[in-house]
Amino acid sequence: MRHHVRQTRENGVGMGRFARAGAMVGALVLTAALALTGCGNDPEKAPVTATSGGPPATDAAPSATTAAPQPATEPLPVSPADGAKSRPVSTEIGARVPGGGKVSTVVLTSKGRTVDGRLRLDGSSWVPSAPLKYGTRYTATVTGTGADGRIYRGTSSFSTMAKPNSMIGSGLYLFDGRTYGVAMPVVAEFSPGIPAKDRAAVQKRMFVRTDPPQPGAWHWLPGGTQAYYRAPEYWKPGTTLTVRLALAGIPLSNGRYGNTDRTATAKIGRSFEMKVDNASKKMTVYVDGALARTMPVSLGKKSTPSSSGTMVVMEKKESTVFDTRDEPDPDNQYVTEIDFAQRLTWGGEYIHAAPWSEGDQGRRNVSHGCVNVSTANARWLFAQTMIGDPITVRGTERRLEPGNGWTAWSLSWDEYVKGSALPVPEGGAGPAF
Q: Residues with catalytic annotation?
C-alpha cells in the first residue's frame, strides 16, 4: 500500500500531462552548449615577388607578382544529398572523407544567415545547435582533408519538411540553474513511450556533458516512457551538468515526431547520503563522507513493507496530506496531515515526521511503507536535504521496482548499462562533443 498526496503536480516547462504526483518537469535538455565550427578558407601561400636578378635598384619599377596556385580540391558527397526535400528539422550534416580523412569545416546557411553547430567528437556528423526551421531551404558546404593531404569539398542544398501533426510529448526532470544532490539522474520522459526500434536513434540525440568530465550512460525503462542518465558512481560534488535533448522533429517508426528540444544546465552540490538498515532500525547520515547523525526509524510493517534499494529524494513538502481512501483494504484507508515529507517513490514512500510512532522507532516497523522518523529528526533532515540526495534501504521484504521513482542507482553499473540502446564503452561513454 502506498500514500497519495492530495495535491496537483507542479509542472515546469515541458509535458504538464503526467499524472504521477509530485514530479517536476523541467525544460528537456542537451548535454552541451554548442558553438559554431570555424569556417576557414582554403590555405593559400603568400604572394611571390618575381625579379629580373641582381640587386634591386631603389628606383626600380614595381615588381610583378603571381599567386601560387591553390591546392586542387576533390569532390565530397554531402548528406543530405543535393536537392533533398522534406528533411526532418533534426537533420545533421554528414560527409565521409575518403581514405580515413577528417571533416575540417561545415558551413550551413539559410537566407544569408549562418547556422550554429558543432561536429561530433567521432566526426560522424555536424549537429546544428538548435532545430532547423520547418519548410526552409538550407545550403551546406563541407570541407575535409584526406590522410594524403588532399582537400575535399562538397556542397548540398536541401529543404526541410512542413511541421508534422503527430508528435510525442517529452519532459526533462532538471531545472535550469538549480542545484541537486549527487544522485540526481538526468531523467527524460516520453508520452507515448519510444518504440524499442527507435531508441538508439533517439538516444543518439540526447546529449549530456559534465564538468569535471565523468563518463556516463543512458538506461531505458520497459515501455520506453523514461530514460535515465548517470555515471558509474555518484556525481562528484560541484559537477556542472549540461543537457540537451535534441528531439525536435526526430522521426519515429510510429509516424510521430519529437515535439521540441529541451535544455538545462544544473549544478551538483555537496555529498549527502542516507543509509537505512532494517536490522538495526537506524538511519545513518553522511555529509561529504563523514558521519553526521544517526537516528532511529520505523519502516513498513509486513503487510506494507518498505522497498529495499537506492532511491532519490524527488520532492519535498514541509506540510502535506496523505489520503489513502482509495486503497482496497479498509484498514489502510486514512487521511492524515504530515510534516516534513520527502518523496522517494511514485507509489507513495516518503521520509516524514511520525510523532505517533516515536515509541516504535528503532524497535519495530509499524508504517505503511514510509521511513518514519521523529519530528525533530524529520525537521533536521528536511533542512539539510535537496532533490537528488540518495537514500539506500536494506533488508526489507520488498525490492524496489524499476521505475517506481528515480531508480537509476538501484542497479549495479553492469546491470544498468544493459538498458542502453547503444553500445557503452567499458567504464562509460563520454560526451558527443
A: 352, 370
